[in-house]
Amino acid sequence: MRGVHPISGFRLTIENVKSHISTTHEVLVAVFQVRPQPIHRNGGATSDTPELCVLLWERALDPMSGTWALPGGRLEPDEDLPDSARRQLAQKVDVQELTHLEQLSVFSDPQRVPGNRVIASTFLGLIPCPAEPELPTDTAWHPVARLPEMAFDHRIVVDHARTRLAAKLSYTNIGFALAPHEFTVSTLKSIYSAALGYHVDATNLQRVLGRRRVITPTGTTAPPGKTGGRPAAMYRFTDTRYRVTDEFAALRPPAD
Amino acid sequence: MRGVHPISGFRLTIENVKSHISTTHEVLVAVFQVRPQPIHRNGGATSDTPELCVLLWERALDPMSGTWALPGGRLEPDEDLPDSARRQLAQKVDVQELTHLEQLSVFSDPQRVPGNRVIASTFLGLIPCPAEPELPTDTAWHPVARLPEMAFDHRIVVDHARTRLAAKLSYTNIGFALAPHEFTVSTLKSIYSAALGYHVDATNLQRVLGRRRVITPTGTTAPPGKTGGRPAAMYRFTDTRYRVTDEFAALRPPAD
DNA sequence: CCAAAAGTGTTCCAAGTACACCCATGA
DNA sequence: TCATGGGTGTACTTGGAACACTTTTGG
């Protein structure tokens, strides 16, 4: 039980082992989906603008019982972080639906939770629009604009993940992970608007994503609604793999 | 020793503790500095274009003795990751010189190093130009363009850190962490060129960073060299704190 | 024929790039 | 006065925002 670790060169003493036992590593995932919101009856007005939602479960036990937490749990010895994230998520949603999973930062404050130390590696997960996964009874989607009281530092994790998602919507094709396989520009516009938190112009969205070859028309059209209107062209994302589309926003290398 | 962990809800069994002992957490830091290169005597030609260099130490012990590794080491129970990074670095360089430290991704493959599992949290560190810190004998600066054989996955970490640095030079003021306190535009140009790996135009660099209020003229000028030339205006970075300067490269929110 | 929704064309503007030309200095 | 390096002026280009206008549908 004594000796120098061959890799790091640190000593494996009784004290180290004891202190080490008390440090565990957990994974936390902020899973987002753009979801049509249930009707708000404010004087009969029904809102159907979709909102960005995050998957949370309600703690039944102390500490912080009654508050809402991100899905996650302990990292096992034989799995890496993405595998662990997927495994933990499988307890809350159908992981088949997960179209994107990406590591965010690590929260390592020794005091971040009461009791023994827990280091948290956080992830951003995305689920596309039409999916309606089954949820356990303690689990629900919450609009990010109206978050409930949250456990520990989980609120910070959610904010962090939102910021990252918004940034990536601008310079990558990450929208594919939120949108249905095929969609109209106005559907896509409402998805981007929900995820970014501000109004996005459908005309410009079409042109920007088209010019970058991020979306491609399928050639088919969607039938108009009851009230008429021109039928909308259907699009799909050109790649279903994550891709950076606008690498050099500024200070690009010389042309030659 | 048995029971349910109050936070994560997982069981603390003998098996869990045993497997847990064998998992440790280390910090690895890729520290960069733009350094004037020692003279290359290729037929008498002396090159003095500075290059981006990374701080490495040579392993004296197996496994992989003789290969070069990033500074770092084990995370202690009472410190968070940035503190640990600074502490580990202090064994190799004067941490006072460190102007930027930022977390990159976690390497969590259970097999990433031989022997017991070691999870690595990686960091990007920056040291400004004029600094010439003392180094231990096993430690040296290596140009990123000519890296020696490196230990484990450390090469990947360095590449990752370079990519991140290059990206951030474009849309943040992170250059302050590589440049001297005061500098001429042509000095800054050579720093950016070295860090980005391609030729940067001094005229445009001045205009871009000036327009964004990233750099400010001090009002003073630097004396010209032996061969004459107009004296150069001195600049400094407006903020010495990390700041995002070009948040919305595309898909910016509406003006009103 | 009108309202509604989708798509196109046009103008404007911000921001970078490229490069010619002007300025200040030492020998 | 000239070579040298620094700074400015300007024309070009890219790409996104805004908005008017046209197209295609249902009632």
From TrEMBL, chains A, B:
<dbReference type="InterPro" id="IPR000086">
    <property type="entry name" value="NUDIX_hydrolase_dom"/>
</dbReference>
<dbReference type="Pfam" id="PF21906">
    <property type="entry name" value="WHD_NrtR"/>
</dbReference>
<dbReference type="InterPro" id="IPR015797">
    <property type="entry name" value="NUDIX_hydrolase-like_dom_sf"/>
</dbReference>
<protein>
    <recommendedName>
        <fullName>Nudix hydrolase domain-containing protein</fullName>
    </recommendedName>
</protein>
<dbReference type="Pfam" id="PF00293">
    <property type="entry name" value="NUDIX"/>
</dbReference>
<feature type="domain" description="Nudix hydrolase">
    <location>
        <begin position="38"/>
        <end position="165"/>
    </location>
</feature>
<dbReference type="InterPro" id="IPR036390">
    <property type="entry name" value="WH_DNA-bd_sf"/>
</dbReference>
<dbReference type="InterPro" id="IPR054105">
    <property type="entry name" value="WHD_NrtR"/>
</dbReference>
<dbReference type="InterPro" id="IPR036388">
    <property type="entry name" value="WH-like_DNA-bd_sf"/>
</dbReference>
